[in-house]
Amino acid sequence: MALIPRFFGNPSVSDPFPREIWDPLFGSGEASSLANLQIDWKETPEAHVFKADLPGLKKEEVKVEVEEGRVLKISGERSMEKEDKNDKWHRVERSHGKFLRSFRLPENAKVDAVKAAMENGVLTVTVPKKEVKKHEIIEICIEREDLKTQHFHVERCQGEWCQLFVHSVVDSALACMRAEGHIPLQNQFLQDGIKSSAADFSLESERISPLNSSTKRDAEESGTCSMSIPRPHKSHASAGSNTPFKGFSITVAHTQYNSPDPSNHPDFSFLPIPDGLSDGQNFASLLNLVLAANVNCESPLREYLAEKQEQHGDIACIIHDITMYFAEAVANHLKVPSINLVTSNVSTTIAHNAFPSLLEKGHIPLQGSTLHDPVPELHPLRFKDLPISRLGDLEAFFQILVNMYKKKFSSPIIWNTMDCLEQSSLTQRQQQLQVPFFPIGPLHKLAPPSSSSLLEEDSSCITWLDKQSPKSVIYVSWGSLACMDAKDLAEVAWGLANSNQPFLWVVRPGSVRGSQWIEQLPETFMDTVGERCHIVKWAPQKEVLGHRAVGGFWSHCGWNSTLESISEGVPMICRPYSGDQRVNTRYISHVWKVGLELESDELERVEIERAVRRLMVDGEGEEMRQRAMELKEKVEICTSEGGSSNRALKELVEYISSF
Question: Can you name a GO cellular component term (predicted)?
């Protein structure tokens, strides 16, 4: 029996909760036998004791390891008996094959003194405990005299990912928050068939400069260490949280690329960090850019926070988005506890969890003949609904998943969701992970009205909506990523026109390939639709969805758009583009039943006309609208005083304050 402490670095997460670790690198043999190994874990005053029944196994066939991050792994293989050709089996019930169980050990585990013994088929692993210095609990005062209650306020600061570092004058809590956002594409540099329109990344942007003493001093003199590290993409919406974090102030740490305007957020301090993404690099895909951002941001963030620790004492907690996994490495290095933030829906992470098995069985890459088949154990998803990104090659996509999940979810998780939408998924995921959950969504309902969009919102559409009949308008917007060609534009235009419904259509500049805006619309289109149509470059989406005239939303079904639509009781036409949008679409149409999906791979005017009339005119659409209104009421209950999201928010505040 091998006992191999692979890494004995200082632990960084104060986590007393057991955890099943999902690793995309595991093979099907290990995963398939995982449930066959039952393990007891008890804690005594002196040690953590693990016991596993392994009848018939020799100690040489069992391996116990402690890996980086205090991960205890128990693995081995139960071999199948050799068969004689004359043997006739009547029943085979004993399991065989590889097995593996992994647990994240608490901070008080003394990993360099682990002992393992095996007697009478029972494996006993004893992990001695060590004394851990407890974090001092500091009473947090309110810094602004003009406010009796200062609220924690998070803007979706112009990027898809935001990390927030929150701390009081003496102690600090670090939070990294991502806004799912809708990523505009700007310059045409994406390769391998991924075309960007007027919206991807401007490689001519100002070069990133390193942190300097003046920018550090500006942040420090504000008395805060709260930061945001946005992924370097534009975002049209604000994902915020107006929550009761008394006494916490916020510094937004951001890349200089697509940086926010500090004057729009006077309550925040801002700290630029270099990301190396504007130094003339040409990335093969959006996914490769994400990989590069995680590599480039780690060192400057670590250096700054190390200096902050030295000057102001320990940081109490790091809250970071799972996609910005470099923050986890920084937390480990600085020995700081952390909390994960997930801004997609819970069902997407459950689907990600199944990818290793699906890969091993050959279901990924997806096969055309099985696209409409149900995915085993992922009801109601079909293979075409799996959250696989179209923004680059599969290798880059799965590398990001490996980096995200390999050592994640050992600490609590903040979710941008709510019980009334995903109660069963939340329960399933919590059973898998065994860590505290804080479902505080929808974040946009907790934030004050504001806009951090880098695209100018055209408020003329509100004046136009004021002239329309109640629930008569179909609002059409596909976020800031999807693009189309001239043929698709024409099919959409005539499909909307032929529906005879008034429509508000967002056509993002550059989203039509080969065109600046709407130059390629059919010549007679505008004369045909007249006042029944209003086209804008960008719209104040939350205000539009809340308008009395809007009765339907044709969307790409990003999670923010989905939550915004449900929160206003607006049913949807779904045409997902990539990733979790597919999962969202399936739940919208087949679980919550507040929308319908355009199933065809090609945009066709007849199908579009039929879908619009189904949603806006037919009895089927009225039933969806009624269910959407019922969900709206449930969302309001969740976010009101005493509701599930409200309670989770207060629990999160208490948890952070305990460090």
Answer: cytoplasm
